[in-house]
Structure formats: structure tokens, C-alpha cells
Amino acid sequence: MPSPAAIKYFNNIQNAEILRKGVNDPRFKPISRVKKQIYYHASLAASVATWDAYINNIVRDFFEVTFDPSISKFHSLHTVAKSIAEKALKKFNTPNWENTRNLLFQHIGYDPINDWIWLNHNMGVQQVKERLNQILKVRHSFAHGFAVPAFSWTQTNAGVVRLTSMALTENEALFKHLVKQTDKGMKQYIDTIYGTHLTW
Q1: Is residue 158 packed enough to be buried (19+ CB in 10 Å), middle (13-18) or exposed (0-12)?
Q2: What is the domain count for the chain?
Q3: What is the pTM of this model?
Q4: Which end of the chain is flanked by fewer CB atoms within 10 Å, N or C?
């Protein structure tokens, strides 16, 4: 069973998918390339926002499931750590590879680096890191009015830089994979360190 954070993620990622798929809805035909890009940009922004929300929520889920008021010394430390984590979450607005990993490790103690590989797509740690950071750079560029950077997935064979449905689908699949792997790794970490048996 997924964590509460993952359940919210899988419910909300549908918004990004609706925006992406809407471009090819025959009811909207004809649609210009400019309008397609607007939809695709919105879809990518929704994917990133949903990933950002998942990370925020999984940190909060961690503190929820590790809360034990029966151990007074632990309860005091837990309260302080949770307060510090909440402050960090308020400043957390760029969920790239480094920032996300640092947030999880520094405030929970869980390092996702070994979980963030994607063997089915032949993507090791470095490749996942590069793709996630590229996604954040693309989101940042159009959010601030800059040209979309040229990466292998943002340009056509002819060298035209633009987002495509295929690239967005790949990004959505990467985020879904990261959510599942983070959930799995976090559960294992909590069960091992805290001696619990989570249902997610």
C-alpha cells in the first residue's frame, strides 16, 4: 500500500496527464503549436508541483508515523526535529535532485540515492540526477520567461527546441518511479531504524 503522500501524488498527477492529453483531444482541433506548448508547459509545471508536494508530504508522513509520546526524551527530540523540518519545507521550492536528497537526508536521515535508479530504463544514479535536474531547469526557464533549454528530450531531430507529449510522458513515468521507490525506501528505513511495521 502506498504512503498517504503517494496516494495524494497519484491522485494529483492526473492533472498533468489531463493537460498533456488535452492537446490531442479532437475537440480542440485545430490547435496551433504555440497553444500546444502552453498546454505542455502547464503539464510539466503540474508534474513538478505534484513531485514537490509529494516530498513535502512524505516528510510530514515520516514524523506522523515515528511519533511516540510514550518515550518522553524521544518525544522532545522528535518535536524539535519536526519543527526544524517544517521550517525547511517552507523554504523548499526547487525539488531538484540535490535539494530533494539533502532535505530527506538532513531532516529524516533517509538517503534515497540507492533507491533513485531506474533499471528498467537503463538509468543509473547519474542519469536520473541529470534528467530530474533538467526537468527542473526547463520548468524554471518558462516560469521565468526564458527560452527552454536544449536537452535531448526537449528538441526534435531537426533541432527545434520544444516540449512533446512523448517527453512529458517519460517525465511523468520518471516521477512515478521516484515516488514508488522513495516510498519503498522510506518504509524500509523507518521499519529498520524505528522497529515499526508500516502498512505502506
Answers
A1: exposed
A2: 1
A3: 0.94
A4: N
